[in-house]
Amino acid sequence: KISYYNGEFKRDNEISVDYNDRAFYFGDGVYEVVRVYDNEFFTLEEHMDRLVRSASEIEINGLDREKLIDIITELKEQNSIKNGSIYIQVSRGINPRNHAYPAGAEPVILAYMNEMARPSHQMDNGVEVITANDYRWLKCHVKSLNLLANVMEKERAVRAGAHETLLHRDGVVTEGSSTNVFIVSDGVLRTHPANHLILNGITRQEVLKIAEAQGLEYAEKAFTLEELKSADEVFITSTTQEVTPVSHVDGEKVGDGAKGRITQKIQEEFDQRIHELNLV
Ligand code: PLP
Fold first, then answer.
1. pLDDT at 90
2. What's the sign of the alpha-carbon dihedral 56, 136, 270, 34?
3. Which three-class secondary structure state does DSSP give residue 1?
4. Is Ribosomal protein there in the keyword field (predicted)?
5. From 10, 67, 82, 143, active-site residue
6. CA 280 – CA 52 distance, rounded (Å)
7. Domain residues of the chain, as ranges?
8. Which residue lies with its CA nearest to atom 2 of ligand 1?
9. Topology match between the domains 2-115 and 120-276
10. Ligand 1, from 145, 238, 244: best to mutate by most atoms within 8 Å of Cβ?
């Protein structure tokens, strides 16, 4: 496998990461995960825009968006992977450990590609989730490398035999540890508004576009844990999990536990958008 680190494409086993990379000490950087379906990027522009925006939110300025696209395009070409995901991160640079920003350090880019199949089983059968307190910082809209709370909350789900932890602030549901969350109640699709309390997922935005295009009733309006638990349908979204139904919340069935009608409709439209990639 060919990957990229700090200016060079190399075989994976020939890459050595500098231990003074600030990503390593502080999680001082931002990242993206982009899906490749049948050799084509999905929503590349949106991911690259968010990467540059996340970087500027943490004062890593002047990133060359075209260069970032060139790097991942080259990765896609050098690795013969038809269906996969590309991880790309930008750190503040390499400098001996010191909290304050290093003067003159150049951002360091790391990128690699993995093979990845679509999560068909979970998209059909749904997943179980648990809920927990959201104690993250107040810049959740930044796709930061600093994922300690997310990691610990995902582990909580794993230990409970569940798939994801949905987070709430004082009973108001924000998002999952690595996903956005939607409910359907009385025919209305709802998700937390895109503010500093959530990452505005690209998949979330696709779902909202689908809702708009399909004439579904929807609102970017937060909901409570009680509303989550009494919803007719619940699903989570992300680049790798796509649109995944939730069958149980904290051990209680959502509806009758099977995939809901609106979830199914959105999945079909999402699928359509993936397939359209190769028709143009
Ligand atoms: N929320 C969090 C905290 C995430 O880490 C992610 C993705 O990894 C998402 C939401 C979903 O975002 P996207 O649909 O852009 O992958």
1. 98
2. positive
3. coil
4. no
5. 143
6. 27
7. 2-115, 120-276
8. 178
9. no
10. 238
pLDDT in tens, the chain (280 residues): 999 999 999 999 999 999 999 999 999 999 999 999 999 999 999 999 999 999 999 999 999 999 999 999 999 999 989 999 999 999 999 999 999 999 988 999 999 999 999 999 999 999 999 999 999 999 999 999 999 999 999 999 999 999 999 999 999 999 999 999 999 999 999 999 999 999 999 999 999 999 999 999 999 999 999 999 999 999 999 999 999 999 999 999 999 999 999 999 999 999 999 998 866 5
What's the token pair of residue 266?
A: 């959105």
DSSP state for residue 63 in the 8-state scheme: -
d(CA 242, CA 263): 11
Residue type, 43: T
State the distance from the centre of ligand 1 to the C-alpha of 96, rounded, in angstroms. Answer: 31
174 CB within 6 A, ligand 1: no
What is the token pair recorded at 167?
């987070």
The tokens for 32 are 């993206």
* Residue 229 annotated in active site: no
In CATH, the number for domain 2-115 is 3.30.470.10
Q: Are 136 and 177 in contact (CB under 8 A)?
A: no
Helix or strand holding residue 69 (H, E)? helix 65-78
Atom of ligand 1 nearest to the CA of 50: 15
Q: For this complex, say whether ipTM is above 0.95.
A: yes
pTM for the structure as a whole: 0.97
Angle, nearest 10°, between helix axes 261-276 and 202-214? Answer: 110
Superfamily in which the 120-276 domain is placed by CATH: D-amino Acid Aminotransferase, subunit A, domain 2 (3.20.10.10)
Please report where in the chains the tokens 């003067």 appear, as a residue. 103
Half-sphere CA count of 167, side-chain side, radius 13 A: 25
